[in-house]
Amino acid sequence: MAASPRMRNALTLFSSADDVLCHRVRLVLAAKGVTYDLITVDPKDPPEDLIDLNPYHSVPTLVERDLVLYAASVVTEYLDERYPHPPLMPVDPLSRARLRLAMLRLEHDWVPEVRAIQTGTKANADAARKRLKELVATSVPLFKAYKFFLNSEMSLADCAMAPIIWRLEALGVPLPKDGKAIEDYGNRIFRNPGFTRSLTPQERNLRELPA
Protein backbone atom coordinates (compact mmCIF):
# COMPACT_ATOMS: atom_id res chain seq x y z
CA MET A 1 0.00 0.00 0.00
CA ALA A 2 1.28 3.49 -0.78
CA ALA A 3 1.97 5.67 2.22
CA SER A 4 -0.87 7.95 3.10
CA PRO A 5 -0.30 11.73 2.91
CA ARG A 6 -0.99 11.71 6.65
CA MET A 7 2.28 9.82 7.16
CA ARG A 8 4.81 12.57 6.63
CA ASN A 9 7.76 11.10 8.57
CA ALA A 10 9.52 7.83 7.90
CA LEU A 11 8.00 6.56 11.15
CA THR A 12 4.29 6.75 12.01
CA LEU A 13 2.54 5.37 15.06
CA PHE A 14 -1.19 4.71 15.21
CA SER A 15 -2.12 4.93 18.88
CA SER A 16 -5.13 5.41 21.09
CA ALA A 17 -5.15 8.36 23.48
CA ASP A 18 -5.19 6.28 26.67
CA ASP A 19 -4.04 2.67 26.46
CA VAL A 20 -1.27 0.89 28.34
CA LEU A 21 0.05 -0.99 25.29
CA CYS A 22 0.16 2.12 23.12
CA HIS A 23 1.78 4.03 25.97
CA ARG A 24 4.37 1.25 26.17
CA VAL A 25 5.42 1.88 22.56
CA ARG A 26 5.43 5.66 22.98
CA LEU A 27 7.65 5.28 26.03
CA VAL A 28 10.19 3.25 24.03
CA LEU A 29 10.17 5.87 21.28
CA ALA A 30 10.70 8.62 23.85
CA ALA A 31 13.55 6.70 25.52
CA LYS A 32 15.22 6.33 22.13
CA GLY A 33 14.67 9.98 21.20
CA VAL A 34 13.06 8.98 17.90
CA THR A 35 11.02 11.47 15.89
CA TYR A 36 7.74 10.11 14.59
CA ASP A 37 4.24 11.08 13.54
CA LEU A 38 1.55 10.20 16.06
CA ILE A 39 -1.91 9.48 14.68
CA THR A 40 -4.40 9.21 17.52
CA VAL A 41 -7.30 6.92 16.71
CA ASP A 42 -10.44 5.58 18.32
CA PRO A 43 -9.92 1.78 18.35
CA LYS A 44 -13.68 1.31 18.09
CA ASP A 45 -13.75 3.36 14.89
CA PRO A 46 -10.40 2.79 13.15
CA PRO A 47 -9.53 5.09 10.24
CA GLU A 48 -9.28 3.76 6.71
CA ASP A 49 -5.47 4.02 6.75
CA LEU A 50 -5.27 1.64 9.70
CA ILE A 51 -7.83 -0.75 8.24
CA ASP A 52 -5.77 -0.98 5.05
CA LEU A 53 -2.46 -1.45 6.90
CA ASN A 54 -3.32 -3.84 9.72
CA PRO A 55 -5.63 -6.85 9.23
CA TYR A 56 -6.61 -6.66 12.91
CA HIS A 57 -7.22 -2.87 12.82
CA SER A 58 -5.48 -2.76 16.21
CA VAL A 59 -3.30 -0.26 18.01
CA PRO A 60 -0.46 0.22 18.48
CA THR A 61 0.51 -0.07 14.82
CA LEU A 62 3.89 1.20 13.63
CA VAL A 63 4.58 2.09 10.02
CA GLU A 64 8.09 2.64 8.67
CA ARG A 65 7.97 3.15 4.92
CA ASP A 66 6.80 -0.24 3.58
CA LEU A 67 7.07 -2.01 6.94
CA VAL A 68 3.94 -2.37 9.08
CA LEU A 69 4.21 -3.81 12.60
CA TYR A 70 1.54 -4.41 15.23
CA ALA A 71 1.38 -5.97 18.70
CA ALA A 72 3.24 -3.99 21.34
CA SER A 73 5.77 -6.74 22.03
CA VAL A 74 6.76 -6.96 18.36
CA VAL A 75 6.90 -3.19 17.91
CA THR A 76 8.99 -2.50 21.02
CA GLU A 77 11.56 -5.21 20.29
CA TYR A 78 11.87 -3.94 16.73
CA LEU A 79 12.44 -0.39 17.95
CA ASP A 80 15.09 -1.54 20.41
CA GLU A 81 16.99 -3.29 17.61
CA ARG A 82 16.35 -0.61 14.99
CA TYR A 83 17.53 2.20 17.29
CA PRO A 84 20.14 0.50 19.50
CA HIS A 85 21.05 3.47 21.71
CA PRO A 86 20.31 3.44 24.54
CA PRO A 87 19.82 -0.34 24.66
CA LEU A 88 16.68 -1.41 26.49
CA MET A 89 17.43 -5.12 26.88
CA PRO A 90 20.28 -6.88 28.70
CA VAL A 91 23.05 -8.51 26.71
CA ASP A 92 22.92 -11.99 28.20
CA PRO A 93 20.27 -14.44 26.96
CA LEU A 94 19.11 -15.50 30.43
CA SER A 95 18.28 -11.95 31.52
CA ARG A 96 16.60 -11.21 28.18
CA ALA A 97 14.44 -14.32 28.51
CA ARG A 98 13.48 -13.39 32.08
CA LEU A 99 12.37 -9.92 31.02
CA ARG A 100 10.46 -11.26 28.01
CA LEU A 101 8.60 -13.64 30.30
CA ALA A 102 7.79 -10.79 32.70
CA MET A 103 6.42 -8.70 29.83
CA LEU A 104 4.32 -11.63 28.64
CA ARG A 105 2.82 -11.99 32.12
CA LEU A 106 2.03 -8.28 32.20
CA GLU A 107 0.16 -8.59 28.90
CA HIS A 108 -1.73 -11.72 29.95
CA ASP A 109 -2.42 -10.93 33.63
CA TRP A 110 -2.25 -7.17 34.25
CA VAL A 111 -3.36 -5.48 31.03
CA PRO A 112 -6.77 -7.27 30.81
CA GLU A 113 -7.58 -6.08 34.34
CA VAL A 114 -6.66 -2.50 33.45
CA ARG A 115 -8.90 -2.62 30.40
CA ALA A 116 -11.76 -4.22 32.32
CA ILE A 117 -11.63 -1.39 34.85
CA GLN A 118 -11.59 1.19 32.07
CA THR A 119 -14.30 -0.26 29.83
CA GLY A 120 -16.19 -2.99 31.68
CA THR A 121 -19.48 -2.93 33.54
CA LYS A 122 -19.39 -1.84 37.17
CA ALA A 123 -19.39 -5.45 38.35
CA ASN A 124 -16.60 -6.41 35.96
CA ALA A 125 -14.61 -3.31 36.83
CA ASP A 126 -14.92 -3.96 40.58
CA ALA A 127 -13.76 -7.56 40.14
CA ALA A 128 -10.85 -6.47 37.93
CA ARG A 129 -9.88 -3.79 40.43
CA LYS A 130 -9.67 -6.42 43.16
CA ARG A 131 -7.56 -8.73 41.00
CA LEU A 132 -5.23 -5.93 39.94
CA LYS A 133 -4.81 -4.87 43.57
CA GLU A 134 -3.74 -8.45 44.38
CA LEU A 135 -1.28 -8.51 41.48
CA VAL A 136 0.28 -5.26 42.65
CA ALA A 137 0.54 -6.50 46.24
CA THR A 138 2.24 -9.77 45.29
CA SER A 139 4.73 -7.91 43.05
CA VAL A 140 6.18 -5.75 45.85
CA PRO A 141 9.28 -7.97 46.36
CA LEU A 142 10.16 -7.60 42.67
CA PHE A 143 10.33 -3.82 43.04
CA LYS A 144 12.52 -4.13 46.13
CA ALA A 145 15.04 -6.38 44.40
CA TYR A 146 16.31 -3.98 41.71
CA LYS A 147 16.44 -0.29 40.91
CA PHE A 148 14.26 -0.96 37.87
CA PHE A 149 11.81 -3.76 37.13
CA LEU A 150 13.79 -7.03 37.38
CA ASN A 151 16.90 -5.23 36.16
CA SER A 152 19.53 -2.76 37.30
CA GLU A 153 19.01 -0.60 34.19
CA MET A 154 15.84 0.63 32.51
CA SER A 155 14.56 -1.91 30.00
CA LEU A 156 11.62 -2.76 27.77
CA ALA A 157 10.04 -4.33 30.86
CA ASP A 158 9.87 -0.89 32.49
CA CYS A 159 8.25 0.50 29.36
CA ALA A 160 5.56 -2.16 29.85
CA MET A 161 5.20 -1.76 33.62
CA ALA A 162 5.44 2.02 34.09
CA PRO A 163 2.26 2.84 32.10
CA ILE A 164 0.31 0.54 34.44
CA ILE A 165 1.82 2.05 37.60
CA TRP A 166 1.05 5.54 36.22
CA ARG A 167 -2.65 4.61 35.95
CA LEU A 168 -3.17 2.86 39.31
CA GLU A 169 -4.47 5.95 41.10
CA ALA A 170 -6.92 6.79 38.31
CA LEU A 171 -8.04 3.14 38.21
CA GLY A 172 -8.88 3.23 41.92
CA VAL A 173 -6.16 0.75 42.84
CA PRO A 174 -4.21 1.95 45.90
CA LEU A 175 -0.70 0.76 46.63
CA PRO A 176 -0.42 -1.76 49.46
CA LYS A 177 0.84 -0.63 52.86
CA ASP A 178 4.29 -2.00 52.08
CA GLY A 179 4.25 -0.53 48.56
CA LYS A 180 6.78 2.28 49.02
CA ALA A 181 9.18 0.45 46.70
CA ILE A 182 6.56 0.67 43.94
CA GLU A 183 5.97 4.36 44.65
CA ASP A 184 9.73 5.04 44.54
CA TYR A 185 10.06 3.05 41.35
CA GLY A 186 7.27 5.00 39.68
CA ASN A 187 8.65 8.37 40.73
CA ARG A 188 12.09 7.41 39.46
CA ILE A 189 10.67 6.81 35.99
CA PHE A 190 8.01 9.53 35.99
CA ARG A 191 10.63 12.22 36.67
CA ASN A 192 12.44 11.27 33.47
CA PRO A 193 11.76 13.81 30.67
CA GLY A 194 11.29 10.89 28.27
CA PHE A 195 8.32 9.68 30.28
CA THR A 196 6.74 13.12 30.12
CA ARG A 197 7.20 13.14 26.34
CA SER A 198 5.49 9.76 26.08
CA LEU A 199 2.22 11.02 27.59
CA THR A 200 -0.80 12.06 25.58
CA PRO A 201 -2.84 14.97 27.00
CA GLN A 202 -5.41 12.46 28.28
CA GLU A 203 -2.76 10.41 30.05
CA ARG A 204 -1.11 13.49 31.52
CA ASN A 205 -4.39 14.31 33.25
CA LEU A 206 -4.57 10.94 35.02
CA ARG A 207 -2.33 12.06 37.89
CA GLU A 208 0.27 14.59 39.00
CA LEU A 209 3.83 14.31 37.81
CA PRO A 210 6.23 14.04 40.76
CA ALA A 211 8.17 17.18 41.66
TrEMBL record:
SUPFAM superfamilies: GST C-terminal domain-like, Thioredoxin-like
CDD domains associated with the record: GST_N_SspA (cd03059)
InterPro entries in UniProt: Glutathione-S-Trfase_C_sf, Glutathione_S-Trfase, Glutathione_S-Trfase_N, GST_C, GST_Omega/HSP26, SspA_N, Thioredoxin-like_sf
Record field: transmembrane: none
Domain of life: Bacteria
Domain GST N-terminal: 9-87
Matches recorded under Gene3D superfamilies: 1.20.1050.10, Glutaredoxin (3.40.30.10)
Protein family per UniProt: Belongs to the GST superfamily. HSP26 family.
PANTHER family in the record: GLUTATHIONE S-TRANSFERASE OMEGA, PTHR43968
Protein name stated in the entry: Glutathione S-transferase N-terminal domain-containing protein
